[in-house]
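STRUCTURE:
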């Protein structure tokens, strides 16, 4: 019998969505109270684009770009050396 009562008390989303009055969220209430005293200014639909950067790269950017290639070459070289070493060890004759 208690199972039937629990089923009747279960929250029904359709019933909640059909409610005539819906309370705003806490954030909506906070913003409404804040804007009542100090309303926000108009905001454009899209912000103005920022200043266009020049195509010249700074020396710092150039060194970063080269260092990434150097680190890539070091990693690939290490992998190749390990592969060659393992191949040498497998083909070495054992007596």
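SEQUENCE:
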């Amino acid at each position: 019998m208690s199972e039937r009562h629990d089923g009747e008390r279960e929250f029904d989303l359709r019933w909640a969505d059909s409610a005539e009055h819906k309370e705003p969220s806490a954030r909506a209430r906070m913003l409404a109270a804040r804007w009542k005293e100090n309303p926000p200014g108009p905001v454009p639909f899209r912000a103005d684009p920022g200043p266009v950067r020049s195509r010249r790269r700074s020396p710092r950017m150039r060194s970063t770009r080269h260092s990434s290639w150097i680190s890539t070459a070091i990693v690939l070289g290490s992998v190749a050396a390990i592969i060659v070493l393992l191949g040498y060890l497998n083909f070495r004759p054992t007596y």
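REMARK: Residues 41 and 47 are 14 Å apart (CA to CA).
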